[in-house]
Amino acid sequence: MKTNFIHTYVSVDCVVFGFDDDQLNILLVQRDVDKTGVKDLKLPGSLIYNEEDVDDAANRVLFELTGIKKMTLRQFRCFASPDRASDPDDMKWLDKAYQPNINRLITVAYLSLCKVDRKLNNISKYKQTEWCPIDRLPQMPFDHNQIVKKSLTEIRAWIERNPAVVFELLPHKFTISQLHKLYEAIYNKNIDIRNFHKKVATMSYVQPLDEKQKDVSHRAARYFKFDKKSYNRLKTSM
Amino acid sequence: MKTNFIHTYVSVDCVVFGFDDDQLNILLVQRDVDKTGVKDLKLPGSLIYNEEDVDDAANRVLFELTGIKKMTLRQFRCFASPDRASDPDDMKWLDKAYQPNINRLITVAYLSLCKVDRKLNNISKYKQTEWCPIDRLPQMPFDHNQIVKKSLTEIRAWIERNPAVVFELLPHKFTISQLHKLYEAIYNKNIDIRNFHKKVATMSYVQPLDEKQKDVSHRAARYFKFDKKSYNRLKTSM
DNA sequence: TCAAAAGTGTTCGATATACACCCATGC
DNA sequence: GCATGGGTGTATATCGAACACTTTTGA
Hints:
2 domains, Arc Repressor Mutant, subunit A, Nucleoside Triphosphate Pyrophosphohydrolase, homodimer, 7-stranded mixed beta sheet, alpha+beta, DNA-binding
């Protein structure tokens, strides 16, 4: 019997999106090797445990990263190129962070969404976490840049299938303007604000509150909320 | 250093769709254990090799199955539940087919498409392959039934992103009626034939041939072909 | 009174849906 | 001539895109 079947470690890596009223950001962590002055950022991730499903592993990584128990997440691809972990620096880091002689590493990539103003309970092993604008990402280890690139097309497909997820990126109370800017950032194009108002008006699950902005030097905008129940009612009736 | 990280084999499993002018079918293979009279069908798949990417492994499985070098395929999900390979029969089979003591197995699932009338060059290790209608699937080992279920929603998403792939399920020459039935099977609903004709007429890449059906006991239908060049021109101009 | 962002309606074209009859062929 | 499936057109509804001005507020 051949024994040249792969026998390997498997990891999960998470691309966590956040939105800061201006652009999309991704949450990166600092790799805990000794510093040489250069920043050394990567996607948060972990090898998975023996009795752990990949979804559970992704949830664990996100919990360690943010302190949030059940974050919305979505698996989007397995990356398994034989040479994805062949850079000497990356291999050295694997030796140190996990164990020696990990010659190959398969990873399962996840998308997740997080409010950027959320206090991140950095329970974790990570020295430092950092929101990084998607158009100014550093060079990252392994194939993390490629994973992020792929995640950008996936997030759109996700939102089209499930429009509720965008609200994970906004505060509980938000203005139409915030939602508008978020859509513009995700689709990377201008969206006519008048048509956008109409579109939102047809979403029964985006509901106006009585509350308005305060202390703004212009007309105060109304706050809206996302109503999960209305959304579910709508979706189950289809 | 903890050593309770998973260190495991990884497989690929392929859900190959075919269309027989009536319904969608999936290509299953017979598991080569000694028979007890009961059919024992599963998704075609394989452990992956040391120096092999998962996409390459899926291509290899499909080649061994059909004799076709580069089939259209699409990765859609990693299945990694810790107990997906815990059924005693399944474990016994793994022992025999691969090697002993595979206590856990992670699989990466792929979609692929194949013309059912294609001569399958069964190059392979498989005793027997069988097209099986999707609404009459047998009980399969591991979580293969779950994988197939998930694949049904994925195939729709795939076609919406890339309408060219449906033609992989039809002969090179096909009638509008065949295409119509195929769409009805994929979406599992009736589609008005007059509106369907109009829709097809807007697809510049579906082109009429001079040829018509022969020896049919009704008005002969015109054959059409899918023109890849027109399709690519259209897609790159968008 | 000015600056800055909020909020609002109409028109047009494209696309999707609903719906019914005549045509060609083999038997 | 009849059964079988092939092929066609029109009317309506819906959706998305284009487009500009008035309102509110604080400074």
